[in-house]
Amino acid sequence: MSGASREQERASALEGRMDVLVSYVLLGGVLTAVLFVVVGLAWHWLNTGQLGVDYRISGMNLFEFVVDDLRQVGSAQLRPRLLVSIGIAALMLTPYLRVFASLLFFAFAEHNWKYVAFTGFVLSVLTYSLFLR
Amino acid sequence: MSFGLLFLVSIVAGFIGAMSGMGGGVVLIPAMTLLGMNIKQAIAISIVSVIATSSGSASAYVRDRITNLKVGMFLEMFTILGALVGATITLSTGNAILFILFGVVLLFSWVALFVQRHEVWRAHPWQDRFTRWLQLEGSYYDQPTAQTIQYHAVRAYFGGPLMFGAGLIAGMLGIGAGALKVLIHDLVMGLPPKVSTTTSNLIIGVTALAGTSVYLAAGVIDPGLVAPVMLGILLGAFVGTRVLVRMRNEAVRRFFLVVLLVLGVEMVVRGLGGIL
Q1: pLDDT digits over B147-175, tens only?
Q2: Cβ–Cβ of B62/A22 closer than 8 Å?
Q3: Using DSSP, how many helices (H) and how many strands (E) does chain B show?
Q4: What would the mean pLDDT of B218-225 be, rounded to a whole number?
Q5: How many CB atoms lie within 10 A of CB A35?
Q6: Which residue from B minimizes the CA distance to A61?
Q7: Hey, is B142 helix, strand or coil?
Q8: Is the pLDDT of residue B75 over 60?
Q9: Do B221 and B51 form a contact (C-beta atoms < 8 A)?
């Protein structure tokens, strides 16, 4: 086997692993989000007999949003609500983690610096947007 | 608005979105405003659920190795900026304008859905230097014809800026704007239809996240309403995709396309009613 085709095969195998990784991040993120939201709603329903969760929300970013609920976790009433919030946070972080996984891949597996820069740009903009307020 | 009603509407929206190939938002937003929800709130809730449906379906496509991750990553640089700007514009725009814009975009995507799929894809004979520098090329295994299809993208210097526009619309209106993205992939960048659909799906998730952040920061997203919508849309889309595989009925698809046409006209009329 020639060196060139071996190199090609290696690149193709790497890309395959990247596809699998990205695919798992996406699926895992959505399933985690659904699980938290469903359990949170069910718990809330068992507590109150109502399905709808009441939220009063002011403008805040994703982290403040979760931290705000965590702060109130001492009150038993709000624990189901926290699960719903974590679910929504997990959903929002799914594409973010997908981009992050791509960055690691381009950097450490492919050593493709052009795409490390592109992915880094996307990740920075998303990070900025998550901290917006 | 009651939890049950919202959940039900979302299931129907997810189902029609998957069956017609236009995504859940285009049905969800008109439906929620008809039930009395403010259009900005409807947009904000819809864009969160767009993350869910796009990530769910992108997962399967990426694993099948049809999605082109490099094309996706390059174009995401433009769409996320568009979405940030778009969502910011929406927050300071009058509701009537949003209704009209939504209706117009809905009608345009509806037309696009008809126009694009009729021609047979052929590989471009040339590739410009910029796109080659970007390494935008790939191959995938086409199941029906049992062939490996080699392809390369072209005109990335047009595709990128145009995708800023697609992201702008997605962020403004809380939809995936998939039809628009696919159109750019097909007509401008010369990607094979399967690659353009699946790659656009991947881009939609990240773009929706950028838009979501703006709406969350503005306090328009009510998690109590997001929960039923997100679950409903996912359920509807899941069932819709399954049904779509089993039932290749053109008549059913056409029926849903008529529904979308009616919704588009209805939104424009309501918007004009708000202005006049």
Answers
A1: 888 899 999 999 999 999 999 999 999 99
A2: yes
A3: 11, 2
A4: 88
A5: 14
A6: B217
A7: strand
A8: yes
A9: no
B153: tokens are 């993208």
CA angle A25–A123–A62, rounded 5-degree value: 75
Output phi, psi for B143, to 5 deg. -60, -50
3-state secondary structure of B149: strand
Domain ranges of chain A: 3-130
Please tell me if residue B228 touches chain A, with a CB cutoff of 8 Å.
Answer: yes
Integer Cα distance of B76 and A95 in angstroms = 11
Q: Which two tokens stand for residue A94?
A: 């799914």
A53 φ/ψ angles, rounded to the nearest 5 degrees:
-95, 130
Q: Which of residues 89-108 of A touch B (CB under 8 A)?
A: 91-92, 94-96, 98-99, 102
Q: HSE of B34 in the Cβ direction (CA atoms, 13 Å)?
A: 13
Please name the residues in contact with B168: beta carbons below 8 A apart, sequence gap of 6 or more. Answer: B82, B83, B85, B86, B89
Helix axes B69-91, A113-130, angle to 10 degrees: 20
Residue burial B47-85, b: 16+ Cβ < 10 Å; e: rest: bbbbbbbbbbbbbbbbbebbbbbbbbbbbbbbbbbbbbb
Distance CA B99, CA B94 (A): 9
**What is the value of ipTM here, to two decimals?**
0.89
Per-residue model confidence as pLDDT tens digits over B22-69: 778 888 999 999 998 999 999 999 999 999 998 888 888 888 888 899
Reduced to 3 states (helix: H, G, I; strand: E, B; else coil), residue B58 is helix
CB atoms within 10 A of CB B116: 16
Contact A29, B230 (CB under 8 A): no
Name which residue leads in pLDDT, B123 or B85: B85
Question: Is residue A102 a contact partner of residue A18, using CB atoms and an 8 Å limit?
Answer: yes
CA distance B87 to B44: 9
Angle, helices A62-71/A79-104, rounded to nearest 10 degrees: 150
CA-based nearest distance A35→chain B, Å? 10
Band of residue B119 on the pLDDT scale cut at 50, 70, 90: low
